[in-house]
């Protein structure tokens, strides 16, 4: 075709369709449905979900998994001994059954994890939502308070609290000690997200409808800002489990009478040279649990962020 | 550059049967489907099409900068006889910049924010071997000066965020032309800019490329702009070329039904055609097709005018008097500053008519919308709706005002809550105002969906599943749910493709006559105003500089600024008809 | 820029006051005798106890106690440790070692982390990327004391290529293993962050424009992609410094590195409350200063911050 001729494509080759015709698709699509469709196809999601289900089952019903009591029947004669019939993983320094102690320690880790995220979510939602949505001086004050709590690394803060509370060491006090200083991350994430969402036109449209500010926050802004909070909460749960283990490992965590992977690792460290399995086995339980939650957070982050999904 | 001595009769760029596809999870999705384009040296050719037509993909394919998983799947891109599609990335890097310059669309995102302007110009000059050593800086200053940047030498040290959009675009044009390429690809180079700036920049680009003798491949969605700036037109639709040839000929005598649609729907042309009515382009001969009725903006405007001619109750729905809004902003050094966004604005809108508020970015037009809607409180002045001052309204009375007046906003992707289904979104106003019961609300949703020509099956669907135009329809349905008297349309059609835009404009006109609505139509696009409005207020820097009827403003503008805006409508310089 | 620095420092003041107050409050607003609580079940040396009572002015009202304590902090007086030695002296002895260890760890985690993250980001979805994802998820999941023990056992006991504990002079070669352990978690996070940042930057318009100007890949990748991707990584380094401090405490404890972390570690496991409080305060102050520095560095990296605000 020469450049000066007027070319018209045959209509058969370039059929017209209606302008902006509505195609009602087979699949419904919104953030959550799309995220679920994305998760469904990811092996890492299924692996971490399966591990988490298993760990939760172990924590809730430890007796289904072992009939050996974790603290009784310990004989020093079995100290650091290898596997024996009925004791598949061998014995600790005190001669207790390692497998049973791992099974019974699960609920401690998970309990701390869930109490901490309950705390960080409540505090994070309150601080993040109000400072993000109302802005102005409310934001300045709340953010500064958050900065202060954020500026004390939460494990160090928990070390101090647990040192002072030496007589009150329990799952509750350790969770409180961790959670009180861990919430600002959640608040920051939510605040940033609310800043993004609150200027959307649909928020303005709702204001123009006469919906009150607080109802707009509850009905429109929060639901649209919650996805990153879910991600960080999953990761916080893993971090809280690590924090409890670290504190117990340092000897300022749970009392020695409470079954905890961190306590067992602490007990085993002096025998690392002669009986590494007593340290490695509870470490594996700890790491696998943490891995499951971290991975779940990671796949959820990708699935819940349409931009990240598009880039992948 | 050994074979610079080319025959002027030989095409500079010859695209043959080009096919481009994007790899997705569902396989290869074609974006460009076997197109042919020929561009002679020194010529300007425009590719026109809507979003998704493949026009930008074509531009990117030529220099092999397709985004993500895109790749050329067939055909040839002959540049000076050499097939660019067969080059390695390394060889292509020699062609880019040096032989083919590129000016991108959005000046805001196309300069790296962390490097100074000078750095970014200099690296282009160095990369293409135009100068070396100390000459690089000298050359960079010259490039910027050519691009129309005054005090270029001091501005070299500044960063992109210290530049306005227009100045950034000048920098990008300067970089694109820095090595005197034989071809310049300009991908919607001014669509992110204000119309008056757009015009100045395009004039400058035209002068520069003519002086250098650079051929230009111009990508645009605006048919009027394309015809005004290019000798040759290529109209693309769904990855194919539907029509190509000399611009004037295509505009005056569009053959393909798609081109006819585009001509009929382009506001820039419609406003010209209304002026030139009776002349060649006044009314189009449509070739009827099965794919739905044509939307002709002129017909829409005429139908509207006919209905508006019916006797009105001459009473004011809105009276605005000396409205002023001052914002406190933080100055450069942190001190408090005052900024008058709206400055002593007065106007009134008659019931059942459309008042257009026109202005460029920063003119204060959207602030007026927010003040009307009581989304912002006025600093001083008075707004009367139906004869009542809205400032003291609170509680129940404010709800009453809200019921009377509803907005439709610009961004189709932001105007609907993505987590609510369409039915709940449209029903929300009814719920907030406690209108009816569950069943009656559902019936009303169906009725509203029908009014905006959407199937009722959409009620259970989510915004994600809809196109931009469909979302705006839903936003209109939501605005109409409470049977308001006044609808504030804040750039409500600006983000839409022309055909969709024309459809929505027609829908708005129909709804107006059907329901007796009063519109305040806020826009930056004077061309659209001609089709939809009765009265026009032109705003500049917070003030109304001209207020008159549409015909007066278009035919007999009093202010220089209004004339500038009119001149800047793409296609304004086309001499149509006899 | 000076305005920005000034404002950042101004903002740090209330945070400084708040954090020190909070620590003080946690310790001394508890019911009962706070000092006895700090000593737990250990019997304090009466002389030290008397000195501590004098240091903390426990006979004064709480707020006066805090102000006196604050005044001490500002003069660089962190009080005395459990054994009666001034904390400042312990710091003078241990600080250089910790600085050495922290710098080595920072070098390992940033250089390796950014390099691996960059390659992963540029080769998104390829084998290298998939393996780096798995490795970094595993590293993130392993608590630092587990990594430390595994490293100690594998390299120290089993292979015998490194010393399980560091000698008292803490020479650099002996610090390599503790530094790698300390760097491991942050390394994995930096890989993830750099990767995500590189992938996002690569799709930005100015990168395409850089190519369209005729730039070579070897220029675009460092100058336009990597440079811009570093901004979130630097922010991360600041907020993550707290994790590094906790990590240093545990790592120095396990490898017996004679640094500040080890002093805290020993105090914690021996239940020496007053020393714990003093050292935690020191670490929080370090954290504040580092974050201030990171914010200033952020201003250097991003001209939009430098000039606009």
TrEMBL record, chain A:
Keyword annotations from UniProtKB, A to Z: Cell membrane, Membrane, Transmembrane, Transmembrane helix, Transport
Residues passing through the membrane, by range: 44-65, 110-136, 148-166, 172-190, 221-243, 279-300
The UniProt record lists the keyword Transport: yes
InterPro entries: BP-dependent_transpt_permease (IPR050366), MetI-like (IPR000515), MetI-like_sf (IPR035906), OppC_N (IPR025966)
UniProt subcellular location: Cell membrane
Domain ABC transmembrane type-1: 106-297
Annotated protein name in UniProt: ABC transporter permease
Origin species: Cryobacterium tepidiphilum
Keyword Magnesium: no
Main location: membrane
One Gene Ontology CC term in the entry: plasma membrane
Automatic annotation (TrEMBL), chain B:
Species this chain originates from: Cryobacterium tepidiphilum
Name of the protein this chain belongs to: ABC transporter ATP-binding protein
This protein's record includes keyword Nucleotide-binding: yes
Molecular-function GO terms, alphabetical: ATP binding; ATP hydrolysis activity
NCBIfam families linked to this entry: PRK10419.1, PRK11308.1
Keyword check for ATP-binding: yes
This protein's UniProt keywords: ATP-binding, Nucleotide-binding, Transport
Gene3D superfamilies in the cross-refs: P-loop containing nucleotide triphosphate hydrolases (3.40.50.300)
N-terminal signal peptide: none
Sequence similarity: Belongs to the ABC transporter superfamily.
Residue span(s) of domain ABC transporter: 13-263, 318-566
GO biological process: peptide transport; transmembrane transport
InterPro entries to which the protein is assigned, alphabetical: AAA+_ATPase, ABC_transp_ATP-bind, ABC_transporter-like_ATP-bd, ABC_transporter-like_CS, Oligopep_ABC_C, P-loop_NTPase
UniProtKB/TrEMBL annotation, chain C:
The entry's keywords: Cell membrane, Membrane, Transmembrane, Transmembrane helix, Transport
Listed InterPro entries: BPD_transp_1_N, MetI-like, MetI-like_sf
Keyword flag Endoplasmic reticulum: no
CC terms in the record's Gene Ontology section: plasma membrane
Database matches in PROSITE patterns: ABC_TM1
Topological type in the membrane: Multi-pass membrane protein
Gene Ontology BP term (one): transmembrane transport
Domain called ABC transmembrane type-1: residue spans: 95-298
Subcellular location as annotated: Cell membrane
Domain of life: Bacteria
The protein's name: ABC transporter permease
């Amino acid at each position: 075709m020469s450049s000066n001729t007027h070319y018209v494509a045959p209509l058969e080759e370039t059929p017209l369709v209606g302008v902006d015709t509505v195609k009602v698709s087979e699949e419904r699509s919104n953030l959550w449905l799309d995220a679920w469709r994305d998760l469904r196809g990811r092996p890492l999601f299924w692996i971490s979900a399966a591990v988490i289900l298993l760990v939760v089952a172990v924590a809730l019903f430890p007796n289904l998994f072992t009939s050996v009591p974790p603290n009784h029947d310990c004989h020093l004669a079995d100290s650091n001994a290898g596997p024996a019939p009925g004791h598949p993983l061998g014995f600790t320094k005190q001669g207790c059954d390692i497998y049973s102690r791992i099974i019974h320690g699960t609920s401690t880790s998970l309990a701390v994890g869930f109490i901490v995220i309950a705390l960080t979510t409540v505090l994070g939602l309150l601080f993040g939502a109000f400072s993000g949505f109302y802005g102005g001086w409310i934001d300045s004050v709340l953010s500064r308070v958050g900065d202060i709590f954020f500026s004390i690394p939460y494990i160090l803060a928990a070390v101090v609290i647990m040192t002072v509370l030496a007589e009150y060491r329990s799952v509750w006090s350790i969770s409180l000690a961790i959670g009180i200083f861990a919430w600002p991350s959640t608040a920051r994430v939510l605040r940033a997200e609310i800043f993004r969402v609150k200027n959307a036109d649909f928020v303005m449209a709702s204001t123009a409808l006469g919906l009150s500010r607080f109802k707009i926050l509850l009905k429109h802004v929060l639901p649209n800002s919650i996805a990153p909070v879910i991600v960080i909460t999953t990761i916080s749960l893993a971090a809280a489990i690590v924090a409890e283990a670290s504190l117990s490992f340092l000897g300022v965590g749970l009392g020695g009478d409470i079954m905890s992977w961190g306590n067992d690792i602490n007990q085993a460290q002096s025998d690392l040279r002669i009986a590494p399995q007593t340290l490695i086995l509870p470490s594996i339980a700890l790491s696998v649990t943490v891995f499951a939650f971290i991975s779940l957070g990671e796949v959820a982050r990708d699935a819940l962020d349409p931009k990240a999904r598009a880039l992948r | 550059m050994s074979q610079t001595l080319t025959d002027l009769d030989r095409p500079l760029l010859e695209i043959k049967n080009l096919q481009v596809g994007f790899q997705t999870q569902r396989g290869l999705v074609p974006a460009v489907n076997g197109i042919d384009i020929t561009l002679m040296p020194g010529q300007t050719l425009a590719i026109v099409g809507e979003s998704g037509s493949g026009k930008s993909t074509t531009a990117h394919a030529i220099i092999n900068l397709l985004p993500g998983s895109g790749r050329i799947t067939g055909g040839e891109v002959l540049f000076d006889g050499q097939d660019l599609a067969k080059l390695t990335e390394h060889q292509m890097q020699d062609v880019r910049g040096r032989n083919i310059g590129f000016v991108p669309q959005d000046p805001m995102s196309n300069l790296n924010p962390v490097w100074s302007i000078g750095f970014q110009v200099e690296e282009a000059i160095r990369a293409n071997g135009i100068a070396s050593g100390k000459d690089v800086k000298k050359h960079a200053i010259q490039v910027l000066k050519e691009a129309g940047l005054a005090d270029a030498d001091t501005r070299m040290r500044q960063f992109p965020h210290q530049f306005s959009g227009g100045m950034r675009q000048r920098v990008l044009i300067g970089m694109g032309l820095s090595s005197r390429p034989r071809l310049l690809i300009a991908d919607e180079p001014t669509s992110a800019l204000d119309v008056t700036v757009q015009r100045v920049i395009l004039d400058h680009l035209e002068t520069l490329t003519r002086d250098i003798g650079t051929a230009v491949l111009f990508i645009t969605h605006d048919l009027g702009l394309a015809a005004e700036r290019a000798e040759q037109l290529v109209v693309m639709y769904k990855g194919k070329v539907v029509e190509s040839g000399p611009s004037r000929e295509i505009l005056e005598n569009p053959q393909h039904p798609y081109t006819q649609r585009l001509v009929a729907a382009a506001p820039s042309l419609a406003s010209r055609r209304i002026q030139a009515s009776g002349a060649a382009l006044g009314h189009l001969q449509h070739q009827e097709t099965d794919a739905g009725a044509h939307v002709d903006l002129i017909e829409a405007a005429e139908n509207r005018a006919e209905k508006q001619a019916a006797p009105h109750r001459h009473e004011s729905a809105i009276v605005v008097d000396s409205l002023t809004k001052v914002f406190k902003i933080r100055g450069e050094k942190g001190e408090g500053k005052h900024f008058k966004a709206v400055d002593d604005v007065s106007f009134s809108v008659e019931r059942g008519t459309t008042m257009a508020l026109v202005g460029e970015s920063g003119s204060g037009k959207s602030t007026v919308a927010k003040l009307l809607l009581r989304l912002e409180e006025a600093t001083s002045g008075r707004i009367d709706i139906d004869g009542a001052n809205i400032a003291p309204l609170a509680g129940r009375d404010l709800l009453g005002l809200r019921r009377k007046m509803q907005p439709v906003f610009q961004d189709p992707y932001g105007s609907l809550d993505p987590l609510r289904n369409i039915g709940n979104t449209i029903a929300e106003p009814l719920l907030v105002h406690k209108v009816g019961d569950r069943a009656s609300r559902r019936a009303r949703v169906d009725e509203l969906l029908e009014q905006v020509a959407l199937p009722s099956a959409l009620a259970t669907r989510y915004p994600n599943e809809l196109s931009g135009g469909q979302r705006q329809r839903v936003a209109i349905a939501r605005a109409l749910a409470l049977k308001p008297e006044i609808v504030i349309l804040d750039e409500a059609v600006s983000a839409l493709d022309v055909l969709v835009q024309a459809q929505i404009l027609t829908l708005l006109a129909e709804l107006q006559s059907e329901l007796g609505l009063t519109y305040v139509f806020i826009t930056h696009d004077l061309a659209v105003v001609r089709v939809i409005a009765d009265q026009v207020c032109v705003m500049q820097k917070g003030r109304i500089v001209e207020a008159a009827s549409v015909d007066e403003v278009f035919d007999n503008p009093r202010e220089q600024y209004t004339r500038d805006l009119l001149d800047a409508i793409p296609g304004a310089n086309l001499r149509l008809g006899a | 820029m000076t305005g920005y620095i000034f404002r950042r420092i101004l903002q740090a003041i209330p945070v400084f006051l708040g954090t020190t107050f909070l620590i003080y409050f946690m310790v001394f607003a508890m019911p009962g005798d706070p000092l006895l609580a700090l000593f737990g079940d250990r019997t304090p040396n009466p002389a030290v106890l008397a000195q501590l009572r004098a240091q903390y002015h426990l006979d004064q009202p709480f707020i006066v106690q805090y102000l006196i304590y604050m005044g001490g902090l500002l003069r660089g007086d962190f009080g005395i440790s459990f054994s009666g030695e001034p904390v400042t002296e312990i710091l003078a002895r241990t600080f250089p070692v910790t600085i050495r260890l922290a710098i080595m760890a920072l070098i390992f985690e940033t250089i390796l982390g950014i390099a691996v993250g960059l390659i992963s980001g540029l080769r998104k979805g390829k084998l290298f990327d998939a393996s780096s994802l798995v490795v970094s998820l595993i590293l993130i999941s392993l608590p630092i004391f587990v990594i430390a023990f595994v490293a100690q056992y594998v390299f120290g006991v089993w292979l015998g290529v490194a010393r399980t504990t560091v000698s008292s002079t803490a020479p650099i070669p002996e610090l390599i293993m503790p530094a790698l352990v300390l760097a491991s978690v942050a390394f994995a996070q930096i890989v993830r962050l750099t990767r995500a940042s590189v992938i996002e930057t690569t799709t930005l318009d100015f990168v395409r424009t850089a190519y369209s100007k005729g730039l070579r890949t070897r220029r675009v990748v460092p100058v336009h992609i990597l440079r811009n991707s570093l901004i979130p990584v630097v922010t991360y380094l600041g907020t993550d410094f707290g994790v590094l401090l906790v990590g240093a405490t545990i790592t120095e404890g396990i490898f017996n590195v004679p640094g500040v972390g080890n002093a805290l570690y020993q105090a914690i496991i021996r239940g020496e409350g007053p020393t714990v409080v003093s050292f935690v305060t020191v670490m929080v102050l370090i954290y504040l200063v580092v974050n201030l520095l990171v914010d200033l560095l952020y201003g250097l990296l991003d001209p939009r911050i430098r000039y606009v605000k």
